[in-house]
Amino acid sequence: MDDKDLEDLYAWIDEIPLSRQKRNISRDFSDGVLVAEVIRHFIPKIVELHNYQPASAVKQKLENWHVLQRKVFKKLRLVVPENVLEGVTQQTPGVVEVVLNNIRLKIQQYLLNERQGSNTKSPKPRTTDHTSSPRATKKTLGVHAASPPTSPNKIDEEYRAPTTTINRSRGKKSSEDPYSIIEAQKKELVDCHETIGILKLKIEKLEQLLALKDQKIDGQTTILVIGFILIVLCRS
Fold this sequence. Notes:
Blueprint: H1 3-14, H2 25-28, H3 33-42, H4 58-76, H5 82-89, H6 95-121, H7 134-140, H8 160-169, H9 178-235
C-alpha cells in the first residue's frame, strides 16, 4: 500500500465512532476488538461485540481474531492466514493496515451484494432519486470521495480477490475458468506465505543486529565511565 492508500484508509477509520481513541493503529487494533466495532458499524447483524474482550496477551488477542474468523469473516467470505494474524497480534508494523484494507473491501462487496439482492427481489421504477449513481453508492458504502485503495502488495496478494469481485459485480464479465482462478489464488497464497516467512527472518536478523549494537554501546559507555573516573582520580 502506498501513502495515498494509507491516508485514505486512515481517513475512513477516523469517520467510524469507536470505543477507544486511536493513537497507534498497530497496537490499538491488535486485539481485534476495534476491528469488530468497525464491521458492526456497517453490518450490525453479523457482529456480537460481547464475544470480544480487550487483551494485551498475544494468546487472548489470537482468540479474539479466531472468533472473528469463524463468526464474521466467514460471512464476508474473507480468510486471513494464521501467520498474518500472528503479525497483527504481535503489532508488526504495516500488517494490520493490509487486513483493515481488505476488510473494507469485503464490507463494500457485502453491502453492494445486499443492495443488488434487494433490488432484484423488489424492483422499483426509476425516479429522480440518485441513489443508483456511482457517487451515491460510494457514500452508502462508507467510502471516501477518492477511489477505493488499490489491493495490498506482497504482504498477502491473496486479498486481490475482493477488488476483482467488486468490479465484476458492476457489470464486468470474466471469461476465465473458475477452477483456474482458484488454482491461481492458491499459488498466490503459497507465494505470500513464503514472502511472509522471509520477512520474519529479516526482522529476526535485524533484531539480533540491534541487540549486538546495544551491547557494543553499553560496553563503550562502561569504558568511557571508567576512563573518566581514572582521570578524576589521577587529578586528585
